[in-house]
Design brief:
single chain; mainly alpha; about 65% helix
């Protein structure tokens, strides 16, 4: 899963292009899947995924199952869907299979969560993401630390946010429904 600041940076850019959306509902939806106590349910996680890091992270999100249950999305659900898209693409595009297979799950989590703390402050500063963005789920806020080299270099995070921002969600939804699986845009 991407960290909250990555989700919020993408949501903020999306909202700039879609002024017709309710910002509070959309942001709440963006944070909801990680804030809920049952992450597997909110991410539509494959219950039969394997234990290696590749299978584990790639089975975390099922976009098609979400769309089956949410045919007409309100602003909250659209934020939720964008969160799921972000998580799916995050593990597909930010980590190589070689890297994921070279680490134990505990090693990967330790490096990943350290990277989240590093990226948080960087993105808060870059996108003006204040504690106010977390008002629907204040317990999801955690401050970052000054940027340092980690498994999520700043250029990679910037490129990823720009990539997800360019997705035409309506067309992407149709592609997922047509293929009935997670598929890249």
């Amino acid at each position: 899963m991407a960290c909250a600041t990555i989700h919020l940076a993408i949501a903020k850019k999306y909202l700039e292009k879609h002024s017709n959306l309710n910002n509070d509902d959309f942001i709440a939806g963006t944070l909801y899947p990680d804030a809920d106590s049952d992450n597997d349910a909110t991410h539509y996680t494959d219950k039969m995924r394997c234990n290696d890091n590749v299978s584990h992270v790639r089975g975390k999100v099922n976009l098609y199952k979400f769309l089956e249950e949410h045919e007409e999305m309100n602003d909250f659900e659209l934020g939720w869907f964008l969160h799921l898209v972000t998580d799916y693409l995050f593990f597909e595009e930010c980590f190589t299979e070689e890297y994921l297979l070279s680490k134990s799950y505990d090693e990967f989590c330790k490096e990943l969560y350290h990277a989240y703390y590093v990226v948080n402050q960087y993105l808060e500063d870059k996108f003006g993401l204040t504690r106010e963005y977390y008002k629907a789920y204040p317990e999801s806020y955690y401050p970052g630390i000054p940027y340092e080299e980690c498994i999520l270099p700043a250029y990679l995070v910037d490129n990823f946010i720009d990539r997800v921002d360019k997705i035409e969600i309506d067309k992407y939804i149709e592609k997922i429904k047509e293929n009935k699986i997670n598929i890249k845009p």
